[in-house]
Design goal:
Blueprint: H1 13-17, E1 27-31, E2 36-38, H2 42-55, E3 63-67, H3 72-84, E4 87-91, H4 97-107, E5 111-114, H5 119-124, E6 130-132, H6 140-145, E7 162-167, E8 177-181, H7 182-195, E9 203-206, H8 210-224, E10 227-230, H9 236-242, E11 248-251, H10 253-260, E12 275-279, H11 285-295, E13 300-305, E14 309-313, E15 327-328, E16 333-337, E17 350-355, E18 362-363, H12 367-372, E19 374-375, E20 378-387, E21 393-398, E22 403-405, E23 408-410, H13 412-420, E24 425-435, E25 439-448, H14 456-463, E26 475-478, H15 492-498
Parallel strand pairs: 1-10, 3-4, 3-5, 5-6, 9-10, 9-11, 11-12, 12-13, 25-26
Antiparallel strand pairs: 1-2, 7-8, 8-18, 13-14, 14-15, 16-17, 17-20, 19-20, 20-21, 22-23, 24-25
Helix pairs in contact: 2-3, 7-8
């Protein structure tokens, strides 16, 4: 794939991601409103933020939480925490008050930096040390750090020490904090910058959420020396307006579907673009092809997990396909195993396991869950997939999405591909629901294109010509719109709840 990535023994993440030799006048980050921060301002601002955090009790190994909208200062807060050797906890600002309270009670951060709109929720959760930061850069983080003598010295960190704690999605229970090491953050960012050929000549159009877009979007750009244009969130109009000024864009398939739905999105608009990255959810083959035809660019897919950051990726040089997420990153290994944990042959479907040079450090205060997540140093991802003879990975779904009907395994992605090929289908989510005879029944939930005539029973008849009988959905349900999380991924757990009693009685 690419050459091995080195991580220094004194693995301070700030020092590894910020190149001090950048032209100080060059723009580091620009917001949609035109606010800019130059590369020359990073060191001073992060040193002052670090001084204020230290006054709040933040130090090496202590946790500082950020519940923030996207802004240059939010990114520099993470860098400031890294300067101190602290553990940064990004919390999605769109969570409910109860979800935020759970995370804060579980993680017990020494300090919380939050957007003013969430200050009430943080105080209600009983947290005494709060700083504020709004998306326009105002708040007590800025006002109280102004004029402070910055902490210039960088904490010397071992690669095995924690840099961040990221909470899992919690779709199968309460979310748990996954501790990510300094080595993992540096290795992952540098490996991706290398695979994606990110340089100081690049400008990333950043439309991903702040909490979920920090690793895998922001850190590779930092490692490669790219500039960034920050959008508060994905909006088609804003992306179309800023694309001519960018060279890179990263997003989930939903973003690309929305761009394709706008006739203004074309090759002329993308003439200055170098790379479009996709991931976090499967990309339809027809959408993949349509994007290439319309934009003149072939999407680059990658696969990631909360605990392991980005696991595999295609490179810029690869012949990219819609059904593969590339090779394991340099220095790591992937394998696919059977139910007994034995490695299986290329092309066979099984459970994906991962061996990384800097594995995640474990779940916060949960030794039992941490032990259960590994098999002989291999991390058990919980996902199903297959490797081809050249080591390229195809991910077929989360373990929780596997359907066992009549004792036979059904992998949703295979069925979704067949249903998506039917006329009028915009998107499909295949789920398993309880069935008295089969244990689980395959149900396809579809969202149709506007104005489409669609007969579910006729569709099932057509699917029987392409799929083995046990794979054919026993029912096709039509919904006006798929439920999605903030990244645009379909929330299959909500669909399972909705159609749980489809075969009751």
């Amino acid at each position: 794939m690419t050459s091995p990535v080195e991580v220094p023994d004194d693995a301070n993440v700030y020092a590894a991601l910020i190149d001090p030799n950048q032209n100080p006048a060059r723009i580091f980050i620009e917001t949609e409103t035109g606010r800019t921060v130059a590369f020359g301002a990073i060191a001073g601002a992060t040193a002052r933020f670090a001084a204020l955090l230290a006054r709040q009790g933040v130090s090496r190994g202590r946790i500082v939480a950020g519940i923030l909208e996207k802004s240059p200062e939010a990114i520099m807060l993470y860098l400031a925490a890294s300067r101190l050797g602290a553990i940064y906890l990004p919390v999605h600002i769109g969570l409910t008050d109860g979800e935020i309270a759970h995370i804060l009670a579980d993680a017990e951060p020494i300090t919380v930096v939050c957007d003013p709109v969430r200050e009430g929720a943080v105080r209600a959760a009983g947290h005494p040390r709060i700083l504020t930061l709004a998306s326009d850069g105002t708040g007590t983080l800025a006002s109280e750090s102004e004029g402070l003598d910055g902490i210039e010295e960088l904490a010397v960190m071992a690669p095995s020490e924690p840099n961040a704690m990221v909470y899992t999605s919690g779709t199968t229970g309460k979310p748990k904090g996954a501790l990510i090491s300094c080595g993992a953050v540096i290795w992952n960012a540098r490996a991706l910058a290398q695979a994606w050929q990110i340089t100081a000549g690049d400008t990333l159009l950043h439309a991903n959420p702040m909490a979920y877009g920090l690793f895998g979007t922001t850190t590779p750009a930092l490692a490669g020396g790219a500039a960034m244009i920050l959008l508060p969130k994905f909006e088609t109009e804003a992306v179309l307006r800023q694309l001519p000024r960018a060279t890179m864009f990263s997003g989930v398939p939903t973003y690309y579907s929305r761009l394709l739905a706008d006739p203004r999105f074309d090759a002329t608009l993308c003439a200055g673009m170098r790379l479009f990255v996709t991931g976090s959810a499967p990309m339809r083959a027809d959408s993949f092809a349509a994007f290439a035809e319309r934009s003149g660019h072939v999407l680059l897919d990658r696969y990631g997990l909360t605990e392991a950051l980005i696991v595999s990726s295609n490179t810029v040089a690869d012949a990219r396909r819609p059904d593969t997420s590339g090779l394991a990153l340099p220095g790591s290994r992937l394998r696919v195993v059977d139910e007994q944990g034995q490695e299986i042959a290329p092309g066979e479907v099984g459970k994906i396991e991962l061996l990384q040079p800097y594995p995640f450090l474990g779940y916060w205060r949960d030794e039992a869950k941490t032990r259960a997540a590994f098999r002989d140093d291999w991390f058990i991802t919980g996902d199903f997939g297959r490797l081809d003879a050249n080591g390229y990975l195809s991910v077929l779904g989360r373990g929780a999405d596997l359907i066992i009907t009549g004792g036979l395994n059904v992998y949703p992605k295979e069925i979704e591909t067949a249903v998506n090929a039917l006329d009028g289908v915009m998107e499909t989510a295949v789920i398993g629901v309880p069935h008295r005879d089969f244990g689980e029944a395959v149900v396809a939930v579809v969202q149709l294109r506007a104005g489409t005539a669609f007969d579910p029973q006729d569709a099932i008849v057509r699917l029987k010509r392409e799929l083995a009988g046990y794979k054919v959905p026993k029912r096709i349900e039509i919904v006006p719109e798929m439920p999605r999380n903030t990244l645009g991924k379909i929330q299959k757990n909500l669909l399972k709840q909705r159609f749980f009693e489809s075969f009751a009685g």
